[in-house]
Amino acid sequence: MRITLTDAGKRFNREWIFRHLNYEFSPPDRYAITGPNGSGKSTLLQFVAGALMPSEGKISWLDSGEIAPSAIFKYLSISAPYLETVEEMTANEFFRFHQRFKPFLPGISIPHILDINGLTQAADKQIRYYSSGMKQRVRLAQAFFCDTPVLLLDEPTTNLDAPGIILYHQLIQNYCDKRLLLVSSNDPMEYAFCEEMIEMDKLKIKN
Description:
The protein is about 25% helix and about 25% strand. The protein is of the alpha/beta class. The chain has a 5-stranded parallel β-sheet, with helices on both faces. A 4-stranded antiparallel β-sheet has the order 2-1-4-5, covered by helices on one side.
């Protein structure tokens, strides 16, 4: 799956976050969206995800043909600190619920996901009682183990301790070989493995 931006721009009120952006994201390449806080990294990631529409220009999602914006959710998974889990559910319940909407990677079961992410002992505890780091592990697992060709990660190691950061890199190594991967971050540790880099500060255009 390829994602193509053609003379694309996004603004809020009178401020352009980026403008006249021509770019193609193609698998299995890995892309980093970098820049300081407030530079628009998350905006561009949500734009690629189809959560935000262009203020000008065009974004296209291409598989065997062009994919409608209403169907793009079937092709991508996203993890971000601002995306909420269903905290009244246990981890077991949450992953069973999520699996109804998007299947997991072939050969991956819920017990396997819980084990890899160090959540087995807390599998039947409501997520609202998890630490912030455990909640982030749930978000990452939800994204990494869905059978989608595109994976979008926004500040993926937020709230993770040292073992959690090691887990993150293991997930990248083991489950991203053939996927299109975008990482939004201002921490090189989170995107050092990326081949391409988009620096948000260089996309700023003032009118």
